[in-house]
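dude i think i finally got it to work??
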Amino acid sequence: MRSLRAHPALTILLVILALGLLTGIAYAVSRLTGFIPGFGFTADASAVYVLKQPAQAEKDGVSVRVESATSDRDMFWVTVIQSGKTATPQFRDTRAASVILADGTKIDFRQGSSDTDERADQLKANFEFAALPAGTQALTFHYDGLVSDGKVIWSLDIPLQLRPIRADEIIPAEATQAVSLRSESYGGLALSLDQVAPASNKTVLQVSLRFDQPGLSLNTDWDVTLSGADGVLYPLTEVTTDTSDGTKKLYETLPFKGGEALTLKLAVFPDIHKLPMSLDFSGDAPSFSFDPGPNAHIGQTWQLDQTVQAGKYVFHITQARLTQDGGATKLVFQAAPAENLAGFMLYNPDDKRVKGSEGGVPDEKGNMDSTVLLSAVPDRPIVFHFMRAYYTTDGDWQIHWQAPAAPGGVIVGATNTPAPAPVLFATPTLTSSDPLLLQVQALAQKFDAPFQQGPGWVHVVTETISENQQVGQAYPPPYLKSEQWLEIDPDGYILRTVWLDRDVKGQIIQQVATIGSYYFNFTTGDSGSNGNSKYRLSLDMLTQSLSEAGHSRAQITGENVPCDSGQNGSGSDCLLVTLSDSFAQSVQILGEAQISVGSGQRTWINLQSGQQIKSQSFWILPDGSEKIIRTARPVLVEKVDMPPREILDILAKVVVP
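look at this
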């Protein structure tokens, strides 16, 4: 279950009189549509009821407080804060939460999400229920404490009182948005700007994905970017408040003067030009018959020449092979490479011999596999339905529109007050007296010291080689060059940064900028605050890991060895620090032929300079050998007065809230 960033309902200070004077419109709740903070957009405010006041109950040291509740024609939404015991609700178990109406009718929740704050010993959970009967104002919220096996360890019943929402608790949506703005459709997918609600201190947008036909879906997370005609990027903070299927998102951005030419673009990481899509044919699936012939056996391979047309996609199945993995009998079909096709799924819900199905990803040559789980080796023909096709598409999903003017006196949440002064984040004092840990910290501080002398810029380039690349893995690529530009003040605290990831061809695959505590990911469109803290520059990646490992069962060793040949290491002595940890039970890593019994990290530190010159992560195999996963090494660390013009241009594109 995807965890969504939902927020409790906020207090809206809405001066209706001032709004009416400015716009000439008098809003009545009976016909008002708009945005409800903590809930989302509603099309009919006359059907909206909200929590009259928070309600709370306690039992066995647990406190559960219903912070907010909102009901409209489509759903009933509840946000709770659990304190004292922060066991995560079991969202697959409908006993976790339900509502009981006055007549005794019980309604189980249909979706949920949660976020745990271990430091505060709190859990925030959101629950979505089916719509309540019209006019419901009294009900009971039932909440069960569950452990991992679904056992109920305590229960609470919390009476709730609802009331009709007031007009001053809704931000009116733009009347011009009655018809949504849409991008062009590519590969069956279009981007839609559904709703816009302007307030005095922010603008709220509802953006959604629209599909040309039933059964289509986007098989990855997505965001959007918002830019002006001059290329400047505006901040977008996601405030999605429901537990939908991921096709709709809510964002907050800056207030506008009105009339600014804006562009919304779909953003997908790592490659917007290879959008992973799927088309479900379960309602009308094409099929074919597979005849295993006499005496089929594990290890047998059949050469096939079977063409299946699924919608507009044509798959040429060339092979089938019978395998056995952990006692499971698997029939693996292979299809020949085809442009933009990425996989397929076969199944037959009516044949008891068919127990399950797995889609696959193309191998190095582009061949596509689909695996069917069988109860036994087949001894007669089986009809397989072509349930799903996976493909990639390319497009330029963007919407051009004009910003609405921010009204006066419509304030969402707190008024715009000056931000508090940033808290200076000091390197924590280590409580451990372990000699190895203290040595590593001293070496790191020795290397960091000259780079913390500002003002100026520090330029860092790191190369990472992934030696455990999985078929179909998009990020990280086998080779990654990461480049950082960090501006520091006279005391060594970071002011601004630019982070660039490049592939082996030198093409930028990720670009991120930070200004103060605000970050903006140009690639994904994600943005927000990193917290109100100022950090001193440090290239130490090991001390904190060592400190945390010291409180666990991890094994830590250190030894002096010759440094690896290569830049920053040749001809010097190094301290080699190894952290390793055994798993409670062996695990099968996805894509690996062997099981793993542990994992580890190895770091080389130049004893002369104090620089951590190489880091390596690995799996531990049952025979004690290792399989290297990833190796990273810095290839350049330098101080400069100013970065290149293109770095400053990147920072200039970001509008900070």
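Residues 50 and 70 are 4 Å apart (CA to CA).
im so relieved honestly
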